[in-house]
Specification:
Elements: H1 6-14, H2 19-113
């Protein structure tokens, strides 16, 4: 005997269908239910196959994003260090220029006012 939906067969019998017709209808509907179950299982398999690569791609993008953030942070740190270094050089140059200006003014003052 094939797979049947017992409640459907009983309902058809109560509605006045013959035993044979009720059994055939219940078997046919059970066959469709089995087909739908197989289709659902296959769709689940396909979804898992699609979600697998999608998950891998998301992980790869997240990893790449992390690497890029690290590189930009490193570059930002290097740039800040270089700007700070240049800023220190500028301060030293300002002091050197100030000292030279004072020395030149001193020499000019001696030449102009002492003679």
């Amino acid at each position: 005997m094939a797979l049947q939906l017992g409640a459907l067969r009983d309902a058809l019998l109560d509605a006045g269908a013959s035993e044979t017709k009720a059994a055939l209808a219940a078997e046919e509907l059970a066959g469709y239910e089995n087909r739908f179950d197989r289709v659902e299982r296959r769709l689940d398999q396909v979804e898992r196959k699609v979600d697998g690569p999608r998950g891998e791609m998301n992980e790869r993008f997240a990893s790449l994003r992390g690497e890029m953030n690290e590189r930009f942070a490193s570059l930002r740190g290097e740039m800040n260090a270089r700007f700070a270094e240049q800023g220190g050089r500028l301060v030293r140059m300002e002091w050197m220029m100030g000292t030279l200006i004072v020395l030149v003014l001193g020499v000019l003052g001696r030449l102009l006012f002492i003679h």
